[in-house]
């Protein structure tokens, strides 16, 4: 019996990358309000809620909801609203009837390392885990702590890239083979660029561009690429 195909399946993972839906800070940028504390830990805009609803319908139709084994989300409010809305069928516990729910939903885990580029802008600073546990009861926060990563100075792009590669290494070491990640525009773009430019993994040109709000892109992580690259420059 030819088992080469079975062996090949064990040597790669499929990662589905989703940028959060439109947040009120995205609207605030157009008004020059990005540094306003009114945008602290920005939530989704009405347009963003609509984008989540449309994306959920698409992944149900495609069958993706049945193949994803784990969802990793940034612990910023707009990302968690997007992840819960798409993969659990609700925006948050107070608005459970916005999106229809299904029972075979994958677990959702919040992870600090995949949050947006940190520093300077209030929209990228999050609220306490205690507040989140109340608002997002379906998310697992056991891997998150208080906001120790936040600093007032804007994070260097090289550090964002290093953080992204460390995150991919962490994903590779997970047992799941089909994982969804809900994160942010800068973080996702820098992660894919680093995967292509530093690790040497082939990545399509259109995947290296900035994500649109609620856009989904799927990539393949191969064993040969991830084991060939040892991450030693970022201590998470």
Automatic annotation (TrEMBL):
Gene3D superfamilies: Phosphoglycerate mutase-like (3.40.50.1240). One of its GO terms (cellular component) is cytoplasm. GO terms for molecular function: phosphatase activity. It comes from the Eukaryota. InterPro entries: His_Pase_superF_clade-1, His_PPase_superfam, PGM_Phosphatase. Belongs to the phosphoglycerate mutase family. This is Phosphoglycerate mutase-like protein isoform X2. It comes from Raphanus sativus. The gene is LOC130494520.
């Amino acid at each position: 019996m030819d088992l080469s195909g079975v062996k090949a399946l064990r040597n790669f993972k499929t990662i589905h990358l989703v940028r959060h839906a439109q947040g009120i800070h995205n609207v605030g940028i157009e008004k020059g309000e990005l540094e306003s504390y009114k945008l602290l830990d920005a939530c989704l805009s009405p347009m963003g809620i609509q984008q989540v609803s449309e994306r959920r319908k698409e992944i149900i139709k495609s069958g993706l909801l049945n193949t994803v084994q784990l969802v990793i989300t940034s612990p910023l409010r707009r990302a968690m609203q997007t992840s819960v809305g798409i993969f659990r069928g609700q925006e948050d516990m107070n608005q459970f009837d916005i999106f229809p729910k299904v029972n075979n939903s994958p677990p959702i885990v919040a992870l600090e390392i995949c949050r947006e580029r940190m520093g300077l802008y209030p929209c990228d600073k999050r609220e306490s885990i205690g507040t989140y546990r109340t608002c997002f009861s379906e998310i697992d926060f056991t891997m998150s702590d208080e906001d120790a990563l936040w600093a007032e100075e804007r994070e260097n792009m090289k550090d964002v890239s290093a953080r992204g590669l460390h995150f991919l290494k962490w994903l590779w070491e997970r047992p799941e083979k089909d994982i969804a990640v809900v994160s942010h525009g800068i973080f996702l773009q820098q992660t894919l660029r680093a995967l292509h430019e530093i690790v040497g993994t082939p990545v399509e040109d259109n995947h290296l561009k900035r994500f649109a709000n609620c856009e989904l892109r799927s990539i393949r992580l191969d064993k040969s690429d991830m084991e060939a690259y040892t991450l030693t420059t970022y201590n998470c």
